[in-house]
Description:
Chain A is α/β, with parallel strands linked by helices.
Amino acid sequence: MGSRAVFGAALLELASRRDDIYVLSADLIISSGLDRFSKAYPDRCFNVGIAEQNLIGVAAGMAHDGATVFATSFAPFISMRAGEQIRVNLGCMGLNVKAVGISSGLSIGHFGNSHYGIEDMSVTRSIPNITLLCPADGAEIFKVVFAAADLKGPVYIRLTGGVNNPVVYGCDYEFVIGKSIRLREGDDLTVITNGTMVYQSVKAAEILQGNGISASVVNMHTVKPLDTAAVDEAASRGPVVTVEEHSVIGGLGSAVAERKSTLKNTFPQLFIGLPDSYGKPGDYAYLLEKYGLTGELIAKRIEKFYRGV
Amino acid sequence: MRDGDFNRARIESMAGAMRRSILDMSYKCGSGVHLGGGLSVVEILAVLYGAVMNFDPSAPADPNRDRFIMSKGHGVLGLYAALAQVGFFSPDLLETFQQNGTDLASLTVMNINLGIESSNGSLGQGLSMAVGIALHARLRGKTFNTYVLLGNGECNEGEVWEAVMSASQFKLDNLIAIVDDNSMQSDGESRGIMDMSSLSRKFDAFGWDTMLVDGHDVSSLYRGIAQRTADGRPKAVIARTVKGKGVSFVENSRDWHHNRLTKSMYEQALAEIGVS
Lengths: 309, 276
């Protein structure tokens, strides 16, 4: 299942348990995986049309009156077209809205730069009061949706990945907002990552193992509040590499670096992510390859970096 | 909406007391204030708080209270004066207006305990919130009304019209928008900046019931706001007002969108509104 289908399934399950759950979208009910939801709960699912600013405002009004509201649109539209509405309603007023950026990163392929989500982490991370979650796979999307609903306050959920997201978690585990998960133990360095880059990073660590480099992999599913203890521990062990399907400016790498730069005697950090530019469109696999975000290419870059430090 | 609770003389007297408070706040705070817009909304807020809305200042979070969203956050002088008049807080608190660390900022900051429902000032956002509140209220079977006050200049914002569309799509007959149409905005006369032509025809075109009223005549305002609309239609009351109403040198002056009231101006203004 892709991230959007899982998201829709998670909300169906959530709504069956809680009657305060509402879903709004800006003409992307179907694209958000909410077609079944809208049929099952016509009185709890509303389309505001192609109007993202109003989307956030209406969601905020419902939350003002006690509802828990998920609002969806493509990542750049919800985070930037409605960026100031998010700032005022979720940031300043702290209203209980879960803004969901679907198809973030590069997963929307041929749509190109208008639809890629390469700045949304940076934008939402800089707004006070907002919890920022980037789930790694379908199981984690499910957990993120439930955890976001349980948290009384504003959340931005960043959904990355293509139609078939590879599975990171083979079995159940405990998900706690703000508490990262060490997926793999290694002595030489730590890879801190999130979203669909978790899968690629685990793959990279396996390749590195074969080349004599032992890498830990940490799933930093919550970018804000950041699990600073996990960053401190990683920095104390050795070099840190951040891997994100997002611009290297302002996202996960920056969040980790902001913490790490306050620590004494740490190694340099390698930022793996998207460059500070807009490129040509292509399908998801092509783009991951082009930007060096596959397991193989991540491993190569980490090995070169590691040999250099 | 209250029933049969309109007394013209009482509301006019409330409006007079609000103007006095507005001038006191403006002078005493010692800094520039949004005086023009603060004075144009006085009668609108006096009618809403004095005769129309249901609320209990001793239970400001009462889930059944009528909601008021000050979308034109720049009208705070009028709002704070009204809230103090009806007892949401002591008039003493008005002394803290625009002082360091205050709860009474120059643009609204949400504070339910003080009766301030939302944070505004970034224009164009309040109607969307009001749509969300009214929609949720209807879905939950609540009978309160949601009132929202916009400025005519604010109606330049695209989000206003996104919200206008959605209110009729969602058939929100529990939503009443009032536009303080003082024909001016920050840079001067609206006609020369961005001519919105007929606001009532625009709301009408989007499926709203619309009323045109004299925004300084409390009876006209009350009739416009209180009259029941057709089922399923939100209502827009376009209130023709004068920016800076009541103080000659503030009226229709682009210098008074935001300016500082000196002692001599303050004294002249008090005399003009009939305070000796």
